[in-house]
Amino acid sequence: QVQLAESGGGSVQSGGSLNLSCTVSGYNSPCMGWFRQPEGQEREVVALDWTGGGSIYYADSAKGRFTISLDNAVATLYLQMNNLKPEDTAMYHCAVDCPPRVWGQGTQVNVSS
Question: Which of 27, 56, 75, 100 could form a disulfide with 95 if both were Cys (CB 3.0 to 4.6 A apart)?
Answer without folding.
Answer: 100
